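2.7 Reproducibility. Because tokenized structures are sensitive to small changes in the input, we list the exact sequence used for DDE-type integrase/transposase/recombinase, including any N-terminal residues retained from the expression construct. No trimming or masking was applied before prediction.
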Amino acid sequence: MGLRLLYLIFCQLLACLLLLGRLTAANNVEILALRHEVAVLRQRVERPRLSWADRAVLSALARHLPPALRRHRLVTPGTLLTWHRRLVRWKWRQTPTGPGRPPLAEETVALIQRLARENPTWGYVRIQGELRRLGHRVAAATIRRVLSRSVLQPAPQRASQQTWRSFLRSQAHTLLACDFMHVETVFLRLLYVFFVMEIKTRRVHVLGVTARPTGAWVTQLARNLLMDLGDRAGCFRFLIRDRDSKFTAAFDAVFAGNGTAVIPTPQQSPRSNAFVERWIRTARAECTDRLLITGERHLRTVLNLYAEHDNTGMAHRSLDLRAPDDDPNIIPLPAAGIRRRQVLGGLLNEYRTMPPQLPHRPPAEPSSAA
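Resulting structure tokens (single pass, no recycling of outputs):
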């Protein structure tokens, strides 16, 4: 802006020097022509927009005009006073600040929301104490306003709004879930598969296959499951099942004797037992829908192999892309030591790490005596 002002001043001085060498008549004619052009432009432009440099130049030149001509100029005394007042306001202008305390940082707001969501029973003071331990000093009233803007209820309401997902996650290490899966054979015969899943590890137990499931058959399979679990059976406190009529009182009594409470899912709520429902979908997409099943024996063999593959050789998203039976302290080996194992005739593939083979060295020849 300063360079523009200097340029305009230089242009005006140069114009004045050129006017000194001209005749008075020529100057008067040019002035009349310029006045007429200005009048024409005023008819087309209601209010011209002037830059800061234009205003400075016009203000400087207006001081040397006769009083009678100043009244008809773009820059009038009132305009000059207005510009001066604007400059005074600009000089004393300050950064606008709102009333009250400065707002919370976005990181602190996100931390308050996170603590409230992850801990439904924590009230405002409890969250305030946790924030102080983390190095943030926030008032309880501020926490209340933040949660109110985030549409997060107070602690009693948040604790009472526990969903099935949060319940299953908090109780996963003590949960079992069971369900039936049906498969159509190549002869259009309907077979039922009963299986149980350990929610924490996602380990699946295929217990039986039959065409006519009954309550006594399911009860016997429950006894077999507890025998297979052995000492681990006492770790499971809850069993989730649907309201199928094949789950009789005798079936519930088997688990009650082990100290496991049976929790029936609400009616028409498949998401309440979402883990086994998801396993059924995966088993159909990867196994049963890609094979022609001939009978019970065939289906039992196929599902046993698939369950073994699911427990030992399949990466699960919920387990950080590991299999239920994987060793958490496994040491990865180079890619050259990985071997493929085909399951179900190549329908599924498993990959195992193999120790690197040392190069074969021929035995050293005995040295001859000198």
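The mean pLDDT is 80.
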